[in-house]
Amino acid sequence: MSTSNRPSGLHVILRSSWRRWLVVVVVVVVAVSVVLIHRFDGPPTAGTAEVTVGQDPPTYDQQRRADVTVLLDQWARAVRSGDLDALRDVMDPQADPGFVEAQLRRAAVVPGVPFAEFGYDLGDEPETPVPPSIAAALDSTDVWAPAVYLRYAITGPDASPTRRPVSLVVAERDGRWRLVDDADLTEYRRQTWRGPWDFGPLTVRSVATAAGTSVVMGHPDRDAFVENLTAELPSAIAAVTDFWGDDWAGDGLIFVASSAEEFAELTGSDPSTDVAAVTVSDAVAADGSRPTGQRVVFGPDAASRLTPFTVRSVLRHELTHVAARARTSDGTELWVSEGFADYSGYRGSGAEFAQLAPTLAAIVAAGGPPTVLPKNEDFGAGGARSSVAYESAWSVFAFVADRFGESTLRSLYEALASESPTDSAFESVLGLGRAQFVSSWGDWVARQAG
Ligand SMILES: [Zn+2]
What transmembrane ranges does the database entry give (predicted)? Predict the structure, then answer.
């Protein structure tokens, strides 16, 4: 490779060792054992509802669940419609002032989000105790900390809703149940998930992409980046479809976090702000159906640190995770999922081996070809070790595409992603033993780096 034909900007990426910008996939496994036992279809009354169970009058617990279900519906409707009076009306007089303020703020944001669904479900997990300090201060008839979930879907990318926990405390006073607080109760392992709409005003963009509607949302301080991603999405989704095929939704939901706190909340993990983007999804059903809760979340530093080249490749990388998620198991080795996504992310970019794998090329020049595939722990190790892991993983798929073609590459990915250990995949798809495969890959890398 000659330095004169480097794409502009790429040099800077390599010099800043952008590979420290790990692009990782995190699976947020959400408990899905949410069972609604009493839902009411009719308009709620002023706060009470009758439960009919055969001829018997409802038990106290049944009546309480029915009343709080009505309360949850009123709460969701008030927030979703931005009805501040209705929202204040569902607040207990002793509700935490910070909670009330936060709810009023989100009620100014939520109506601008294209929700297909936005509601609260009462779970049937055992209730957790209300901390005595909270209960004593309320001085109410009853106080309750039921299991509650926010159930929501974004119009376009969310074919089905996803659910996230709410650490809710409600109180009964004067015959009415109302909201008290949703603060985390870490001593009881209860926490409230916060969505982008809980972190201030939002810019929301819906854009037609290959097979549906994609949505990008971020805060006003990231408006330019939101517009940038919105402009990139149609071609990124078309590129992923061109590579992966039609066997995915062909749309995406992108969140842009403005702070480390929001990034952690939206990813359900605690990624370094050196991480450019994370793709999350709910647990994958075994039937190959589309996973729920798939989101690509960009970190707070992405807007300032990604270049036009890396915005494009990271977006395609993450959307490849989205496309492949239903065919990727929780046990898939990272070199398989990351290498495949990187191959897709760089596909057609025109960048050369030494541009995309500079650390690997330097190591090969000094010490000869690689003899082992990257291990899972290498990817999160940071520094050169991570760089070599990502670059090596990419190079495995670049080698397979070069030597066997992309159709075989796709078959190999599916075999590798579903089989563990992976040795049989090399044999069944390529007719090569593992050692033979690694050796051929090493020779290819040495030639590319030479
Ligand atoms: Zn990735």
Answer: 21-40
Q: How far apart are CA 94 and CA 97, in angstroms?
A: 8
Q: Give dist(CA 444, CA 6) in Å, integer.
A: 22
* Ligand 1 midpoint to CA 114 (Å): 27
Q: Yes or no: say if 387 and 20 are a contact pair by the CB < 8 Å rule.
A: yes
Q: Which domains does the chain have, with CATH numbers?
A: 20-28+200-327 (3.30.2010.30), 60-193 (3.10.450.100), 331-450 (no CATH)
For residue 91, the CA-to-ligand 1 centroid distance in Å is 42
- 148-200 pLDDT tens trace: 999 999 999 999 999 999 999 999 999 999 999 999 999 999 999 999 999 99
Using the mean position of ligand 1's atoms as its centre, give its distance from the Cα of residue 245 in Å.
Answer: 19
- Flag the least confident range among 14-23, 264-273, 347-356, 369-378: 14-23
Using the structure block, give the residue that is written with the tokens 């009306």: 89
Nearest alpha-carbon partner for 200 in 88, 107, 295: 107
Model confidence pLDDT, tens digit, residues 230-280: 999 999 999 999 999 999 999 999 999 999 999 999 999 888 888 899 999
Long-range contacts of 77-86 (CB under 8 A, 24+ apart): 78/107, 79/103, 79/106, 79/107, 79/110, 79/118, 80/110, 80/111, 80/115, 80/118, 81/111, 82/107, 82/108, 82/110, 82/111, 83/107
* 246 C-alpha to ligand 1 centroid (Å): 20
CA–CA gap between residue 95 and residue 149 (Å, rounded)? 20
Cα 318 to averaged position of ligand 1 atoms, centre (Å): 6
Answer whether 107's CB lies under 8 Å from 118's CB: no
- Ion ligand 1: residues, CB < 5 A: 23, 25, 338, 341
